[in-house]
Structures are given as structure tokens and as C-alpha cells.
Amino acid sequence: MKSLSVLAFISSLSLCVFQQKQETNLIEECVRKSYTLNSCEKVFCQPWERCMDGSCSCKLPYQCPKNGTSVCSTDKRTLNYCQLKSLECQRKNSRFMNRGRCNPQDSFQIYLKHENATSKGIIQVEVNHSPKTFVCGSVWSMNEANVACRHLGFPEGADRTEVVDPEDASHFLECLRAKCRGIETSLAECTLERMNRSNEKVAKVVCHTAHKECSLEQFRCVNRKCIPSDQTCNGINECGDLSDEVCCNACKGVSFHCNSDVCIPNSYLCNNEMDCLTGEDESHQMCDKRTEESEKGDTRAEDNKSGNKRAEENEREGTREAEESMDEERKKIKALLPQLHCGIVNHTVTRRKRILGGNTAGKDEFPWQVAIRGERGSVNCGGVYIGGCWILTAAHCVTESRVHIYKIWTGMLDSIAMDTAIETFSLVKVIVHEKYNSQTYENDIALLEMKPKDKATSPTCSPPDSVPVCIPWSQYMFRGSHQCKVSGWGLTEGFKKQYVLKWGYIYLMENCSEIYKERYFEGMECAGTDDGSVDSCKGDSGGPLVCFDSNGVGYLWGIVSWGENCGEKGHPGVYTKIANYFNWIGRHTGMNLISQYNL
């Protein structure tokens, strides 16, 4: 009986753990990679950071835009906001204090009441040596608590937050209402408003000081904090490092699920700033829908307006002074950063089905598609224009020692009816990936550098009518079942040669390792259709597999590499997955050429 009881207990415990995992909505494989707010595989870097090898690293101050609002730091230096945050990112010894130039009397101090409090207590703020003010409890959340604790010198943020009645309530008539995004390091960066207290509770915080083992009911953050498991994937940065929100197969509460499995607050939707890697939080479809819902809500709320108006007037009367948040300044800085224009097609296309079978590409439909002329003077492979003088193709299409043989044709739709729109470029160099394996097709990728037409007058190539495709930096931008386009001059049905550029829709597949087993390696991606009716074929090699984000921007997700026959059910085409080679491409071309974001 005892052994049965033990087995029953173990079974019950296993079920509990399984249910707990289900409740959290977390993706375990993703969690093991320890993604945080500094992981540009998952989120955008701040404008004073740049994405390097999958992590956000500090920029140098001179890499920030020169224009911007002047701010004063805690060490009394006047800089623009981006420069200050860049310095803080590197040294942590200088934080934002206030907007504008520095004055000797400027100060911003934060305290915990009482005097002997070190890591927990009621928050008090002193601005420019004025009397200490409590922080209002009305909008106090983990966002504000994490910022307050960082300001106090606790880098992991808060363990928990409370609102309480102060002991000496009769001695103060106002409080400071703080509203933060949660990424700030100083409470002074948040939106601050002085309010009449009106019997309001005040903010109390417990900052994280010591690491401990988490219980079965808790989630262990990357920064080693423990939070309740049911607080993950709700759009609230409870961990402080965002590790509870970046590996979610679904989101709870008033939050939005990005395609990259990140949960963001609904308040981030349609705020003129992309928070999801592929922009679905700012898509026209999303924002039009929210506008319609808002208008309906405004109509329904008409009956309640008179009561709410009085409350709003009381709140306005209670506001004594407001300081604008630096969040808008952060957005402004992002707009001032260099903008890379890629992946935009102005041509409106009709939905078509096949690349094997005859759907002819129209003018400007695939402005990044190029043809590679081989040794026999005919189209040998496809390639993709990525900007400057650079072309991407498959390594098996080219040989470095034969650089003088290859020619690049841009703007070509028909390889027989050559027209005046076609430009021909010679090559300066061929760079085959140093770990390319011709037996297994591992790392089947190569870069081709074109020779400018007239180096004396124009050191760049700029093929007419060509538009560079965008290069993805994260493997999470597009996932299985996403519909993408493949194009090329490869063989059609019956393995017949074709002379015009064809294209078709195919879908990304996540079960590639199950299909091809030991022939599938890291850096490969499968795409096709369930019935095999659309596929790439011989002659399409090196050509583009392009996926489009929610705003219609095209990213080169793959280049045609290999496959088992053509258009065969159960054997989709295999592509070199470009996101895995972002840094390799950038090392040769320069990161500024391919970094659409996170510069």
C-alpha cells in the first residue's frame, strides 16, 4: 500500500507540474535559451544600442543622432538623451535627472521611508530640494516598482509591490503619480504628475536583493528572480528583464501575442512604434480594427459621459505639475536613426499558384531577383540583390576561382527577349561560406560583389529598377505555415526548360528534420505545399524565398538550395535559412548595408 501511495504521489506531482507548464503558456525550448529584453532575436534594441550576435550592446555616444533634446545627468553633464543613455549603458554611473541644461541646484532623489530602510519601504521623491513627496498608489505597478528599485541600486528590480496608507497621512496633501514603460533606469525618466492626494494610498516596494530556489509554482527569471508562474505571458514585465514575456505560445489578460511569441501590453498596439519584430502590432488591419472598436466604444460610453466628465475635471484640478516622460523622446530618436529602405514592392500582384507550371512574373514584381550567367552563357542560377554591389546566392552555384566567368543580369524577366531594362555586371569577387560542404549542402550560401559600371563617377552599383530585399536578423520573425513567395527560371513540369521568370506561393514547414532526418542540418529551412503542387526546381538554385511582414515589407527568408526531385508530395524544397547567416553577411558587406533596424 505504501509503494502505491508513493506512486500515486509521484503521478499527482507530475500532473501538477504538467498543468503548471500548460498554465504558464511558456515554450520550454525557448525558455532554455535565456532570452531577455537584451535579446534582439526577440525584441528591438533601444536606440542607444545595436544588435550584435543576437544581443543588444551599447553604442558609443558619437553613434547617436546629433540632434535631440538636451538633458541633464546626475553627474551634472548636459548631453542629448541618446548620448546620456549610451554612456549609462557602458558605465552605469550617470543617469538621467531632468530635461534641459544643467543648473547647480538641480537634483532628483528617491528614498525609502524610514531612514534605516535599505531594500523595502514606502517610496518618497525629492525634486530640486523641495519637501519629500510620496508616490501615488493609483497607477503603481511592477513597471514603476522595477524602475524605482533600479534607481535605488538594485539592478534586478523589484520582488513585489504594494500600496498602503502612510503613517503620517495628515501631514501631506499631495503625491507624485509616476507612470513608466518599465525599461527606464531612473524614476525621473517616467511621466510624473503632482496630484492632490484625496485619501489615496501610496506606493511601497520590496526590491530584489538575494537569489533563492524557486518553488514548483514559480517561474525562474533569467536574472534569477522568482515570480508566480501564473504571472508569465500576461504582457507585464514582472521579471524586470522581460524573460517572462518572450517565450509564450499564447498570452493572457490585456496583452497581445506577437508572431515571435512575445507578449506585449495592449497599450502598445497602434502607438506608431513597432514592438513586434514583423510589425503586426502596427499593421493597417490591426489599427483599423481598433479604430472601429474605439468608435463603437465611444458611442456606448455616451450615456456615462456626464459622470465621467466630473471625475476627469476633479483629476485635472488635482494635477499641479506634469513632467513629460522621456518615452516620446526615445521614439523621436528612433526616427532620427539611419533608415534602410528595402523589401518594398509598389507593384500590385494577383494571387497565383505555381512556379512549376507557368505563372509569369510582372515588371517590378520581384525587383531583387537577378540571374547569374554561367560558363555557357545561359542562366546558371538565380541570385538576390541585397543592396550596394552585393548579391546573395547558393554556394553550389559558383566557384571562387571562376569569378571572371560569371555575369549578373538585373531587371531580366525573359532570358531570350533581352530588353533595354536589363543591366549586366561583372564580378569583383566571389565569397563562398568557409564551412560550405558540397556533399551535404551545409552552409550553402555565397556572396557576389559586382563591379560598378564607372568607378570614377559612381563607386556604387545601383542597378536601375532594382530594389534590395531586406535581410532578417532573427529566426523568430517568420514561423511554420507562414506563406512566402519563391521565384526563378528553373525547370517547369516535365522538367522542361523555361525562359521567363516564374513564381509561386509556398509555406514554411517546421518538420524538416523529420522529413529529411540526417540530411537536415542547422541553417536549413523547408518550404512547400502539402500536395507538392508548388516547388522550386533545378535552375532555381540561389534564387529568393521571400516572406512579407504585416506591413508588406519583404525579407529574404531563404535561398533555394536542394530538394528531392521537384514538386513531389512529402518532399518540400530545402532552403538556406538567411537569418542564421545575418552576422556572416554583415561581416563581409558591412552591417549598415543590411541592418534595417537595431543599427
Can you walk me through this structure?
The chain is an alpha+beta fold and 599 residues long. It has helices at 2-24, 28-31, 81-91, 142-151, 284-300, 305-318, 327-336, 512-516, 582-589, 591-594, and strands at residues 49-52, 55-58, 70-73, 78-80, 96-99, 108-113, 120-127, 133-135, 158-164, 174-179, 191-196, 202-207, 218-220, 226-228, 255-257, 263-265, 319-323, 369-373, 379-387, 390-393, 407-410, 423-425, 427-432, 446-450, 483-488, 502-509, 524-528, 544-548, 554-562, 573-577. Strands 6, 7, 8, 9, 10, 11, 12 and 17 form an eight-stranded mixed beta sheet that branches. A seven-stranded antiparallel beta sheet has the order 22-21-18-19-20-24-23, with helices on one face. The protein has a six-stranded antiparallel β-barrel with strand order 25-26-27-30-29-28. The longest helix has 23 residues, at 2-24. 41% of the residues are buried.
What tags apply to this protein structure?
single chain, 599 residues, alpha+beta, eight-stranded mixed beta sheet, seven-stranded antiparallel beta sheet, elongated, disordered N terminus
Provide a short characterization of the protein structure.
The chain has about 600 residues and is α+β, with helices and mostly antiparallel strands. It has helices at about 1-25, 30, 80-90, 140-150, 285-300, 305-320, 325-335, 510-515, 580-590, 590-595, and strands at about 50, 55-60, 70-75, 80, 95-100, 110-115, 120-125, 135, 160-165, 175-180, 190-195, 200-205, 220, 225-230, 255, 265, 320-325, 370-375, 380-385, 390-395, 405-410, 425, 425-430, 445-450, 485-490, 500-510, 525-530, 545-550, 555-560, 575.
